[in-house]
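Assess the record.
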Amino acid sequence: MTTLTIYTAKYDLNENIANNGMSGKIFLDMDNNGQEFHSIDEAMDYCVDKEIPIDQVMFMYLSKDGNQKFMRFRGK
């Protein structure tokens, strides 16, 4: 299963961490073999160029109540 995981820019806003933690990071995980990208555009181009289907997208975000949450979107 291939998962594209996107962390929003505010994801670690309320955490006491160095270098923004996971905020703003994008990962493509293909059968437990992950790769990091600098932007969503770069990740999408990589998938198109390599003909890699994305089975699910995970958005990791900071909710309005200040808690870290996620939403998962799966293909058919």
The two ends are 12 Å apart (CA to CA).
